[in-house]
């Protein structure tokens, strides 16, 4: 059964129709990877799921309840079940790394500062960062920012996690350990993951389901094996990373 | 030609209505959220420090030179009527009712208002505000409310300081430089200046604080278009707030005489 059900989702910015009828079901406790070319609207799709953008048409259901038309106040309750990593990490640059990762705990729990720092250090360690709590985001490398963003997204152990390109800018060893982190939390906490990535080895390691976004719609979806066998030339070209094919590089 | 002009006029009128609507909405949300617990004391103090303490130097400088030049000019004018003894009250009244709040307001708008707009604008275009929303934290409550509270509380304080420094500056020029009798200067000032005059200035300063903080937060909050957009937000917040300070100053003065 789909935990999140997206149907007929359309979104345009000005004259540009970015999403043109997206239909997608996200299963509870599974890892769904959304693939698609740069600029296809993957980030826009993710922002609709967490209510940062509202659809022009179509609906998003969470556990059978329509969230896409909810008031901002009601949606805020729903958002407490989510964690999100932004493509650019979106760290608060006026706060330390520790302050960033601990922010949701500080705002939504009664934990004492010392206990917050304990959780923060533990989460940072899971993304391979030790002793960075007092650094400012401006002192971090791109990949480190990303990992701090990852730690912040999972600090509340959310039910549903949205990751926008979690491994972009990370070295292959770090990417692999992020894959382990995803698999770990999925197994132990039954976390539902929706990930956007261009990283095919990463996808093959973690995905329960792959969905391909192309020209505003989900054109194909399936398990890794199904997608590997899929004969749609767009899917083939993308998974094999070729410049020639139906998708044109302008 | 005329049609194009009318269209442009129509569009900017539309934009004006949009802006006015959005600012009013933000003001409404700010007031409601300011009285909704929990109160973020730490954020409020941080902003008060930023708006107030860090503006002290500018405001003292402004007050001192304004008071000094006022004494000089009013001495030259009043001398013609043989009324040099009124330099003290002239300086004090001008400072308290008008120049203290207005000049402090304009200076602090340039300093703190533009910085607020830049900070919030940067947070907007780098998706930090969006990130806050995804963490179920209301960005108006977290970012705008403390700044507006700080503006409303600190502007009157800065205006008082400006008044005081201005009066001291006026005294130094009037008594030490121009040779007005010290006792006369102080006595006349006390005779003429009433507590209501000081309060009239403080009400104004409170309104200017609200205008500066709200306009800065508004421009930052709705910034778009990268670094250029952030720059535009800072500029337009200073221009918008300064104009609003001058216009509201006139309106308030005309009600308060
Ligand atoms: N707030 C916005 N205003 C206007 N246009 C937007 C906005 N957000 C996204 N777009 C447009 O929507 C399209 C899709 O953007 P999106 O960021 O979702 O792409 P993406 O698939 O995530 O690409 P990438 O892989 O490069 O991150 C782009 O053409 C972009 O210009
Ligand atoms: Mg993207």
Short description:
The complex is a heterodimer of chains A (250) and B (257). By secondary structure, chain A is of the alpha/beta class.
Describe the structure.
The complex is a heterodimer of chains A (250) and B (257). Chain A is of the alpha/beta class and 250 residues long. Chain A contains nine helices and ten strands. The mean pLDDT of chain A is 88. Chain B is mainly alpha-helical. Chain B has one domain (40-256). The longest helix of chain B has 39 residues, at 87-125. The mean pLDDT of chain B is 87. The structure holds adenosine-5'-triphosphate (ATP) and magnesium ion. Residues 13, 18, 36, 38-44, 87 of chain A line the site of adenosine-5'-triphosphate. The site of magnesium ion (MG) has 4 residues of chain A, from helix 1.
Order of helices and strands of chain A: EEEHEEHEHHHEHEHEEHH
Contiguous helical run count of chain B: 9
Number of spatially distinct domains of chain A = 2
Number of beta-strand segments of chain A: 10
At CATH's second level, what is the architecture of the largest domain in chain A?
Answer: 3-Layer(aba) Sandwich
CATH topology of the largest domain in chain A: Rossmann fold
Based on CA inertia axes, which overall geometry of chain B fits? elongated
Q: Averaged pLDDT of chain A, please? A: 88
The stretches of 5 or more residues of chain B where confidence is low (pLDDT under 50) are none
Distance linking N and C termini of chain A = 40 Å
- The count of domains of chain B is 1
The gross shape of chain A turns out to be globular
From the alpha carbons, calculate the radius of gyration of chain B and give it in angstroms.
21 Å
Report the major sheet of chain B: none
Number of helices of chain A: 9
Largest interface: A-B, 22 and 15 residues
